[in-house]
Amino acid sequence: MAEDRGGAAGGGGALYGLGVLGAWVYFWQDARDGFWWHVLAVLEGLVWPAFMVFEAFSALD
Fold first, then answer.
1. Predicted TM-score of the model (pTM)
2. What residue ranges do the domains of the chain occupy?
3. In percent, how much of the chain has pLDDT > 90?
4. How distant is the alpha carbon of residue 59 from its chain centre?
5. Distances in whole angstroms, Cα of residue 47 to Cα of each of 2, 10, 29, 43, 55
């Protein structure tokens, strides 16, 4: 019988979520005045952790 390992992936999602929240705080504080700068901060916060993971794996090569 196959084991259910669905819970093991939950830790990675939580870690990625913390990375997104931390990036949002950083980029929001760094955003200039104006609506579009804050929109950009939200978008940067969504993609920044993915680039961080990519760079970490690239460093292992």
1. 0.67
2. 18-60
3. 36
4. 18
5. 34, 19, 17, 7, 13
